[in-house]
Amino acid sequence: MRLSAHIIKTTTTVAILSGCLGLSTPLIVSAAEDADITKGKELSFNRKKGNCLACHEIAGGKLAGNIGPPLVAMKARFPDFDKLKAQISDARTNNPNTIMIPFGPHSVLSAKEIDLITKFIYTL
Fold this sequence. Notes:
Layout: H1 2-23, H2 31-45, H3 74-77, H4 81-89, H5 111-122
């Protein structure tokens, strides 16, 4: 009887896990999207452009600052891509006392560059 219960429990666990794996959809990134993400990473790490590493810890970055929060789990923190883009463009909208540079209004970054950086940050 114990062996039967163990077999049933194991079979049920395998079935549940298989079902969960079958429901997950793989993230398919086109070559163009991949190129945009790569350009966004380059801009984010560029000390003369985005310079995100001056304030934020980002995976793969060197000499990261700790003034801003670490940039991890960004899809969970910003489920809406446009809200993240607005935050990067001008964080003063959500927090007038922020020390984050208003990249868009001060023309530090173009709209295209903000879009590329947002695409990269959204993958973190």
